[in-house]
């Protein structure tokens, strides 16, 4: 008859406060993947978090089997953060197992190393980091493109005008950002140099698509070699708005160096809800004034604070770049 006992209580570091208790299982089957799926994955986590948790539990399963096949004396093993209490062979054991927060593999550390599943984890983590940034929204109309961005003022001592979330690239191109502002400045400065070199060499403005391509080319230049521009992926996503010979256009870029042309797009922490609202309210016959109102009304829905000229920025490219003054932003707010 197989030895049976209740699955011990587990808590995986500070990343989750969920205690897991399951019915009695055979000792050999307590860490089977069916139970892992049930116990560790069904708490609404993203696919990336699910996969990382399962990888860690595989390590714990291996450690459990190794120790259960060895000594039956009471022992304490320290491996990393997190805690685990177990009972084997009639004697209690306490093991400190790896925490989810700090568990790493060789595929996590190398920015140039593909995992066996064909993934670059550092790029995926950079994309996940964008979801922690402030919300930015872009809408394209027949007249031009509108950008609206949330500005997080973390202290009353901070000067609101010093928080730049919308930047001018050229007289006909502007961009809004979500993520690390320092990384965004690096990309924008590169784009500014490219557009000025193009204007000097060819006597004409650079197209919006070519400017976006130049930005994404730089975003791909990361690696561990000395010749690389960055040792990690850029932790920023951009909404690039412009007006050229092809008319108004809006592009979206992410840390992988990929870009897409959009009619409307939201990025940042409130992007999921904002994208849903954009799908309901956007149409190609919008005027610039209507686009301003829609963008700011959606920002109002996803922001945790009251919308004021100090915590939002609005800009338009129609056909030249223009950043709204606080009084112009206030005028849009009064229309909500």
Structure explained in plain terms:
It contains nine helices and 16 strands. With 336 residues, it is of the alpha+beta class. It has a domain at 135-335: Aminohydrolase, N-terminal nucleophile (Ntn) domain (Glutamine Phosphoribosylpyrophosphate, subunit 1, domain 1). The strands form four sheets. Strands 14-7-8-15-16 form a five-stranded antiparallel beta sheet. The termini are far apart. Mean pLDDT is 77; it is low at 1-43 and 71-104.
Please estimate the helix content.
25-40%
Question: What CATH architecture of one domain would you give?
Answer: 4-Layer Sandwich
Low-confidence stretches: 1-43, 71-104
CATH superfamily of one domain: Aminohydrolase, N-terminal nucleophile (Ntn) domain
* Structural category: alpha+beta
Mean pLDDT: 77
Order of the strands making up the biggest sheet: 14-7-8-15-16
**Might you state the CATH topology name of one domain?**
Glutamine Phosphoribosylpyrophosphate, subunit 1, domain 1
Shape: globular
Largest sheet: 5 strands, antiparallel
The number of helices is: 9
Task: Note the run of SSEs as H and E.
Answer: EEEHHEEEHHEEEEHHEEEEHHEEH
Our Rg estimate from Cα atoms comes to 26 Å
Strand content: 15-25%
- The tally of strands reads 16
